[in-house]
Amino acid sequence: MYFGGSFSWGDFLFLLSGAVTTLSITLVAVIIGTVLGVLFGLIRAGAPWWIGNTLGAVLDVFRSVPLLIQLVLFNSFNSMLKLNWPTFTVGCICLGIYASAFCTEIVRSGVGAVPQTTRRAARSLGLTWRQELTSITLPIATRIVFPSWIGLTLGVMKDTALVLWIGIVELLRSSQIVTSRVQEPLLILGITGLIYFVMSFPIARLGNQLEKKWGTQ
Amino acid sequence: MDYEFQWRPVLRSLPEMLWGALQTIEIAGLAMMLGTVLAIFLALAKRSGKKYLSLPADMWIETARNTPALFQIYMLYFGLGSLGLQVGSYTALLLGITFNNAGYLAETFRGGFAAVPETQTRAARSLGLGAVQTQWHIVIPQMLRAVFHAMTNQMVWSVLMSSLGVIVGLTTDLTGVTQELNVVTYRTFEYFFVAACLYYLISKAFTLSARVVAWRLFRY
After folding, report:
1. Who's near A13: CB < 8 A, 6+ residues apart?
2. What residues make up the domain containing A30?
3. Is residue A4 in some structural domain?
4. By the CB < 8 Å criterion, does A162 face chain B?
5. Do B189 and A76 touch (CB under 8 A)?
6. Strand (E) positions, chain A?
């Protein structure tokens, strides 16, 4: 096996630019997912059961169908409705909705973990519904579910690899492009894996540590 | 919207897609079984406290958990190929998902092993069971019971991950068949919509049957 050779600095920079695309899709998708997830999660936790359960069943579809299929369907929507959104937008929105389905359950479990007595005490002290939510429930719930939320973020980052199927050049796709020129698949995939690892592992560790630290308090 | 839905060709090729669905279930199931066996060994290796066992297990688990599943499949499909080991897309997909399942399940099992009281092991040993017998008859069954719900989730993940085969050129599983039909007919939305429905049904079937199995197995 002959490593090295024609793999150049420029190729490495190309891989890094792919990693930047991966990170930006992750960022946008996680923001969309979190905003929708908090909204849906609060509805799931607080609304009458039939609204909550209907919403839950709809969101469950996104968790039971492969992301790849969702991307293809969403992409075909894009051309059917003649929206002409760039594939980047399509990928971000699709991943965002996918993430929101998971985030909803995280938020719901977090709100559910805040003791009812705490919430009642806050209300009986004269806080309004909104005040109670923003200064009692959400702060406590955030602490409880933050590690899961980090897990979700990392999951979304790994799932961004699938957007190569609708034609976005992210990290994995750019590794293929480099491979087709340099013809060293193992070396280039190894570097790609290392980049993924470097992006994911420290955050995963941080999540674990926070979980331990906050869990003992 | 001036798009005309055409469902008839989809209905005509439904049997093909159902065969694809069967293949999907086969891949997902096989990968889950192999993954479970490997994960038990990985979790035991991590618990053993011996560096030469826990280090490789750690590397396996962290790679599986910190890189995309698609990357792992690529590694097997293109990476092994460059070492002169040509593997087909079916094998690459199956091994890739197995690798991924094993990594995730090993972490789950580690928690499961911790949930089995140490006294169980000592009681079994003092009754005359060997180390392997103790693991096989006493510890592993209790561990599996503790992690059953997490395993159900992983099974659904296994099904969802099996759709990645199409990216390395698999044409026989549900997504592969759908893509083949799509390339011929260009009815992308209709075909993939039906595929999505089938995937949903498969996922739900696994979740429900797991619930039935759990109810049968775990009542006292």
Report:
1. none
2. 19-168
3. no
4. yes
5. yes
6. none
